[in-house]
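User: Before I run my own analysis I want an independent prediction to cross-check against. Here's the chain; please return only the structure tokens and, at the end, one sentence I can use as a sanity check.
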Amino acid sequence: MKLFGALLVASAAATKQSVSTLSADEQSELRAELSKWREEFGPAAAAQGLLPRATESSSPIEAENDALQRFYDNKLAIEEARRNNPEATFDYNHPFALMTQA
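Assistant: Structure tokens:
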């Protein structure tokens, strides 16, 4: 059973959904949520060194896409955690939300 669980997790990670596959409306909503997160938690995240470092070669568009993907990945992980742990509370409204792997 543990092997099945490990394979399931590995499979889910391998089929990670890209922000680019979202509809224009979904991307717009995600951008608005990220903007709100930045207003509420961006300064605290920056002060604590929790924001991902943009690579020198990345453009502002690439950096924004990276942030959107990290935010989206976090939201998906939270949905999965909620399904697996219905008694627990999970949320992305905290300074650590962009620390997921993009």
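Sanity check: Residues 60-84 form the longest helix (25 residues).
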